[in-house]
């Protein structure tokens, strides 16, 4: 192979790595991915019966992730922290690496009381950025190990330090994401009714449109235009009008199902995306809403239309609007024919 050909091959290998190489080269920003990679590495480099990352909360130690098949201890198992070897390791009264736990009296007593056989232990803390204990990286084996196991302490320090750094970055990113979501919810919440506003409705539609098209999911769009809001405002004042809107919003919120999307679209108009609802189920939803509104002294005109892949949510909203205005015109025409 010539020098240029070899260089080209090397460049191709670097720019187009295989799946396993590509995964290894990706930066680790999430704590769970970092835990998986660290435990997989430890299982290869220091092959104990089981390696685990744990979370310590109050007096409980939760197994977040486990690698190894020597014990039947799946992730999610919780145990009393004060009875664990990690507890005395954190306190500094026992060593972080014990090739033979029988040589450490406290470990020996805990091993004798343990439901599984433990004859070798390795542990190190994971701390958050403010120095608080988050949990531990720990390893166990049913058989005593060579004294050379103690030589792994620098590696253990390095890996637990890396996990602590990733943990701190992930916690900070999560906090920032939650703050952003809170700000977005505030920006997308109608101040008067507490419902989603038109901006939030439009964002949901934009996000869900592709998913609905991809899977052909079922949904119906329902719109409601309240009657008499202008009359209430003109006769009783805007405070009464606001109360009228809030009453309507509370009734609708009590009627819709858990997964439905309810929004005030503006003025006296409300919208519902009945997720997963057939046309019959949407009609039943409208009937329940009409009765509940009437019981609360609120009236309005409804329209509903099914979501279709062809028309999408915008088409369903337009069709529901047309159906609503048709009902409103019919009601007005009926009222105009009513004898005085």
From TrEMBL:
<feature type="domain" description="GGDEF">
    <location>
        <begin position="217"/>
        <end position="340"/>
    </location>
</feature>
<dbReference type="InterPro" id="IPR029016">
    <property type="entry name" value="GAF-like_dom_sf"/>
</dbReference>
<dbReference type="InterPro" id="IPR029787">
    <property type="entry name" value="Nucleotide_cyclase"/>
</dbReference>
<dbReference type="Pfam" id="PF01590">
    <property type="entry name" value="GAF"/>
</dbReference>
<dbReference type="GO" id="GO:0052621">
    <property type="term" value="F:diguanylate cyclase activity"/>
</dbReference>
<protein>
    <submittedName>
        <fullName>Diguanylate cyclase</fullName>
        <ecNumber>2.7.7.65</ecNumber>
    </submittedName>
</protein>
<dbReference type="InterPro" id="IPR003018">
    <property type="entry name" value="GAF"/>
</dbReference>
<dbReference type="Pfam" id="PF00990">
    <property type="entry name" value="GGDEF"/>
</dbReference>
<dbReference type="InterPro" id="IPR043128">
    <property type="entry name" value="Rev_trsase/Diguanyl_cyclase"/>
</dbReference>
<keyword id="KW-0808">Transferase</keyword>
<keyword id="KW-0548">Nucleotidyltransferase</keyword>
<dbReference type="InterPro" id="IPR050469">
    <property type="entry name" value="Diguanylate_Cyclase"/>
</dbReference>
<dbReference type="InterPro" id="IPR000160">
    <property type="entry name" value="GGDEF_dom"/>
</dbReference>
